[in-house]
Amino acid sequence: MTQEMETIQLEFNDKLSTIDNSKALADLRVEYLGKKGKVTGLMKEMKNLSNEERPAYGQKVNELRTGIEKQISELETALSKQAMEKKLAEETIDVTLPGRTLEIGGSNPIDRIVEDIEDFFIGLGYEIKEGYEVEQDYYNFEALNLPKSHPARDMQDSFYISEEILLRTHTSPVQARTLEAQNGEGPVKIICPGKVYRRDSDDATHSHQFTQIEGLVVDKNIHLSDLKGTLELFAKEIFGADREVRLRPSYFPFTEPSVEVDISCFKCKGAGCNVCKQTGWIEILGAGMVHPNVLEMAGFDSKEYSGFAFGMGPDRVAMLKYGIEDIRHLYTNDLRFIDQFIPTEDGGELNESI
Q1: What is the pLDDT of residues 86-140, one digit of tens each?
Q2: What are phi and psi of 188, to 5 degrees?
Q3: How many of the other CB atoms lie within 10 Å of CB of 208?
Q4: CA separation for the pair 285, 15 (Å, rounded)
Q5: Separation CA 312–CA 39 (nearest Å)
Q6: Beta strands 127-128 and 188-197, pairing class
Q7: Three-state DSSP state, 339
């Protein structure tokens, strides 16, 4: 039996000396130490030995197994080290190579316009106020001088959740809530950006969901001239320093007097083109002086306080500024459209000549 063990050891040594990879070593381990391996087979011979011979024989077999396991472990470590050294040699990094440019995304045009508008009005001392998209009928309509029987409600086909709860049709409820929270004390100087919802058929210029920004100023001695001056500064900042502003009489229940605000066409400089429909002017927002009823319902003395309000759609501003012909491009995440608004490699502005 001892001779057989020596033969197995010598045979194992010869085979081990030829092993040069982990797979072959694993196969060798199974051949000698597996359930049907040669060393394991020696233990099965113990049944043929007497009780006196078995302890010594078992000790010899265990010594053989331990020695082979040690040899396999040592070679396994050596092979692993060799494989790592080879991999490191093959994957050496050339630190002199230029870095790889990582692709970065860009802001959606609506977000870009909203941020520009917010930055402008913050610079004028306005606060940003946000409110609920699911709103009470009272704040969406009644607090804005639109009682339940008012025909102007038909101008805004709404998504009602219940008789008194709806998806807001404008961000004006934020203004109403802000005025109410002031307890009749000014000043108030805010802009209110956010999503609004109206039942509308989606097409190139309409969407059932869109973005709106409204502004409100309430204080003593606020006049229409203050509104006009603010909007002139806004138009020049967003559309260019040579923009002109004109006000046209209009009607809104929550302002009196009310105006539609146009800017001179930035494409044709007022000569007339497809953008301005040959008029030289582009309508961008509605505005007016805050109606005394709105001030009174919020707890302000309309004889002491006055104010102005305005509202615009950043979606439309983005379409005008960047020449986007279909509002649906702003929402459908088409990469062919979005890629046009990725910042340039030198960190410059996004491409405005799309």
Answers
A1: 888 887 777 788 887 777 767 788 888 999 999 999 999 999 999 999 999 999 9
A2: -125, 130
A3: 14
A4: 88
A5: 87
A6: parallel
A7: helix
